[in-house]
Amino acid sequence: MAALPDFDQYLGEYLKPGEPLALLLDYDGTLAELTSHPNLTQMSGEMRQALRNIADSGKAFVAVISGRDVDGVKEKIGLENIIYSGNHGLEVLYPNGTRHNQGIPNDVAGNFDKMIDHLTREVVHHGSWVENKRVSITFHFREAEQQYVTEMARRAKEIIESYGYRANEAHASVEGKPPVQWNKGLAAEYILGTSFDPSWRQRKVIFAGDDTTDEDVMQMIKGSGRSFRVTKDKALVTNADYKIPSVDAVYHLLKWIEARIGG
Q1: Which residues contact residue 57 at a Cβ distance below 8 angstroms, ignoring those fewer than 6 apart?
Q2: Distance of CA 134 to the CA centre of its chain
Q3: What pairing do the DSSP bridges indicate for beta strands 204-209 and 173-177?
Q4: How far apart are CA 79 and CA 70, in angstroms?
Q5: What is the mean pLDDT of the chain?
Q6: 198: pLDDT strictly greater than 80
Q7: How far apart are CA 180 and CA 201, in angstroms?
Q8: How far apart are CA 186 and CA 192, in angstroms?
Q9: Residue-wise DSSP of the chain
Q10: Whole-structure pTM value
Q11: pLDDT at 261 over 60
C-alpha cells in the first residue's frame, strides 16, 4: 500500500490549528472515483461525512466546482450548506437557492441542439456518447474501441468549433463549452470575491482537482492559497503546489483539514 501524503509537511505551516479557511474542490476524479459513465460515479459515505463535518464546523467555507451541470453535482454530493458550481463555473448555486449564470450569446445558444444532433449523427459510434449538460456538452470516448478514438476525437473537435463553441480535451473526452471567457479559476475568484470581500486573498484557501480544467484554479490561487493535483503521473507539469495520487488521498486531506480546523 502506497504511503499517504504528509499533510503536516504540506500544510502544517500554512493552516494553523483552528484557523478558518475556504475549501474548493472538484468532484469527478477528486471526491469520487472516475467511472465509465458519469451516472455510475459515487462519492463514498466516508468522504461525504468528512466534507459534511468540515462544512458544519463553522470554520470552513466549502464550494465544489465541477464540469457537471450544477444540479447534477449537487445531487451527487447531497449536502445543503455548500456552494455548487457547474459547467466549469458557468453556473453557481448557493445554499439559499439563488443562482448565478454567466451569459451565453443567443446565436451560440441557438446552435446547441444542432451541435448535439450533428455529433450524434457523425461521431457517436463504437462506444462513444454525448453528455448533454444544458449549457455545455462532453463527448465521451473512454469506452470506445481504441482504433476509432483519434479520428472521432479530431472530428468531434471540428464539429464543436463549427457551431461556435470552444473545444478542449479532458479525460478520455472532448468538451464543448460556450465561447464565454470563463473557466474554473474565474469562477473560484467570483465565488470567493462575492462570498467574502475584495480582501479574500488574506483568507486561507485550499483547492484539489484532477483535470486540466482545474489548472485555472491552481493558477488563480498560486502564491496565496495551496492546491493539490490528483494524479499518479510524477512527470505531469502542473500549477498545483503538490501532487497527490488518488481519491483516497483526497479523503485523508479532508480528514487532516477536519482535525486541523477543530483546533
Answers
A1: 258, 261, 262
A2: 17
A3: unpaired
A4: 13
A5: 94
A6: no
A7: 25
A8: 10
A9: -PPPP-HHHHHTTTS-TT--EEEEE--BTTTB---SSGGG----HHHHHHHHHHHTTSSEEEEEE-SS-HHHHHHHH--SSSEEEEGGGTEEE-TTS-EEE----HHHHTTHHHHHHHHHHHT--TT-EEEE-SS-EEEE-TTS-HHHHHHHHHHHHHHHHHTT-EEEEETTEEEEE-S-S--HHHHHHHHHHHHS-TTGGGSEEEEEE-SGGGHHHHHHHTTTSEEEEE-S-TT---SSSEEE--HHHHHHHHHHHHHHHT-
A10: 0.85
A11: yes
Reported as half-sphere exposure (CB side, CA atoms, 13 A), residue 36 has a value of: 4
Cell of 105: 450569446
| Grid cell at residue 249 | 488521498
CB 21 within 8 A of CB 257: yes
C-alpha cell at 181: 471567457
Residue type, 1: M
Q: Give the total residue count for the chain.
A: 263
